[in-house]
Each structure stands twice: as C-alpha cells, then as structure tokens.
Amino acid sequence: MQKQQHAVTAGQATPRVSAANFDTLPDSAFIREAQLVQSPKRPDSPAPLPFSAPTLWRKVKAGTFPKPHRLSERVTAWKVGDVRAWINQHTADA
Q: Cα separation of 94 and 91, whole Å?
C-alpha cells in the first residue's frame, strides 16, 4: 500500500500559496517557508505572514512561532493548522 502525500510534501509542482488562498488549505496540509513569508524576490506576491524568513526563524528559535516538521532530509514545513492558530492568537491580541 502506497502512502499518499500532499503535493507540497511529494515534491511536485504546486500552485503558489498566497494570503488569498491560504484559508482554503486544510489544517492538515503542510506549507513551506517560501509560501509563508514575503520574499524580496517576489515583492508583489502576498504571503500569509507579514515578516521575512530570517524573522520567521528567529521566532521559531525563540519559541514564539510553531516549530516546523522535518518531512525529509531537505524539506521542512509547517502544518497549516498550527500557522492558522498562531495567526488567530496574534490577531486576537492586537
């Protein structure tokens, strides 16, 4: 029996996740760093989080953002549900 994988974890090409379609992903899906944060290489592409990749990793290290899951030797991703919970918590605090 073959294990089914989400397209992001299977290494297949997937549509770019943006702030607009982030809400349509299931909580069990995984999302990678490039899809979570703003990139200077893609300034016109909106992202669910309003900060840069280095800030994301500083927050992970400080324990103020959920830890990612190691999906393989070279793939690290966050569960969409964990990211949503973090966003909702910080939106409610504001």
A: 5
